[in-house]
Amino acid sequence: MLPETEEEIEQSEEAPEVQPEEEIAKEEVVEEKIVLPGDLIGTSEEFTPKNGTFVDKGNIYAATTGIVKINARERSISVTPVTNVPPQLQVGDIVIGQVTDIKESVALVEIASIKGRGEREIVNAEQAAIHVSNIKDAYVKELYSEFSPFDIVKARVIDLRNMRLTTVNKELGVMKAYCSNCRTVLKKENNKLKCPKCNRVETRKLSSDYGTGII
């Protein structure tokens, strides 16, 4: 048998090792944990935020309830909803959402999921509002003492035409709140919230499920 020519040796050396199964396995890693809207899942230094996330002050948070996915090749992170069936809002539904802004008489909320009816993007969801009269069974002097931007709230749908929500119930209200000063998650102490980092004390219209992760 004749020895390999110089060209054949070069071609042999250049032939890449293909290990498709191993490469595919490295591309995407699924974190076996379900996160709620507002949960911290990484930083912008570590990952590029993708679907189902939002960024605040360099931290990446879950924007929906679902499973965290990390693409190691792209160095990206996303949250995949736990179901593929798009739910439709109905009056009476209990929803989970995030406060996006506070106006004079309403708190604006971006709805993320419907309790017991799936967690992917909702078909007929628009930005919803909680009017000051629908916060609790008591006089509300200042809206800022009940809600703050980035709060995760549990509310009930009372009007689809105007996308109105209510938190008038002990189960309804803020489920997770962030310090207005340093964005640390606030800890519940009696009926108030305290920041474990800067000791700031704040108030909210709290859900009885605050801090439990129970939807």
UniProtKB/TrEMBL annotation:
Primary location class: cytoplasm
Top-level taxon: Archaea
Subcellular localization(s) per the UniProt record: Cytoplasm
All copies of domain S1 motif, residue ranges: 92-170
Keywords in alphabetical order: Cytoplasm, Exosome, Metal-binding, Zinc
GO biological process, one term: RNA processing
A Pfam family this chain is assigned to: EXOSC1
Residues annotated to bind Zn(2+): C179, C182, C195, C198
Keyword Metal-binding: yes
Keyword check for Zinc: yes
Amino acid composition bias (Acidic residues), ranges on this chain: 1-25
GO molecular function: RNA binding; zinc ion binding
GO cellular component, one term: cytoplasm
Region described as Disordered: spans on this chain: 1-26
HAMAP family: Exosome_Csl4
Record function comment: Non-catalytic component of the exosome, which is a complex involved in RNA degradation. Increases the RNA binding and the efficiency of RNA degradation. Helpful for the interaction of the exosome with A-poor RNAs.
Subunit (UniProt): Component of the archaeal exosome complex. Forms a trimer of Rrp4 and/or Csl4 subunits. The trimer associates with an hexameric ring-like arrangement composed of 3 Rrp41-Rrp42 heterodimers. Interacts with DnaG.
Family, per entry: Belongs to the CSL4 family.
Protein name from the UniProt record: Exosome complex component Csl4
Organism listed in the record: Candidatus Methanoperedens nitratireducens
Lineage of source species: Archaea, Methanobacteriati, Methanobacteriota, Stenosarchaea group, Methanomicrobia
Name of the gene encoding the protein in the UniProt record: csl
